[in-house]
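Note to self: the last two entries modelled the partners one at a time, which told us nothing about the interface. This time every component goes in together.
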Amino acid sequence: EPEVTQTPSHQVTQMGQEVILRCVPISNHLYFYWYRQILGQKVEFLVSFYNNEISEKSEIFDDQFSVERPDGSNFTLKIRSTKLEDSAMYFCASSASSGANVLTFGAGSRLTVL
Amino acid sequence: GEDVEQSLFLSVREGDSSVINCTYTDSSSTYLYWYKQEPGAGLQLLTYIFSNMDMKQDQRLTVLLNKKDKHLSLRIADTQTGDSAIYFCAEIPVDSSYKLIFGSGTRLLVRP
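The predicted structure of the combined assembly is written out below.
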């Protein structure tokens, strides 16, 4: 069964450092997403991406976050200057359409900011 | 604003039925979803229901939707130890085609 793959599975970084989380969505999917889950809290929407641009973003997705689809397969989330409160599990997802919006999620990248 | 609430924990015996409940606030939600998360894994879509349906059955899973009370439930028949996981209810609010709003998740523990 096709799957969404994420790397790294776990990253530890120092506060203020830049981090790039990588995702390979399902190949025929057109919509891409990032969600995050701070330990003990709900899974929260960050951003959706379609046709090479952001289609929707949440209040969490401020200027320190950016997304990019640098080639035909990867979808990245960059955090420019990490803060302690960015420590979370980051989930990438993709979907074929926005109708029923059946998202397929990756296993997540755990980010720990020290 | 949009909010999705679930009870945090449910414990059942193997072979019994499990019922996981969820309430949501956006009465105009178009789709409602159930996701499963096993330890160390991502969110796996179990099933979803369109808002004009009352019930959807898929093998051991039955989803009931009460739009009047904004209540969604997931029933797992003949619960197995492999069903132990966290179950998330989620909705798409009417003002978005892209954003899932998740509940806090219900941890299901299946006792042998």
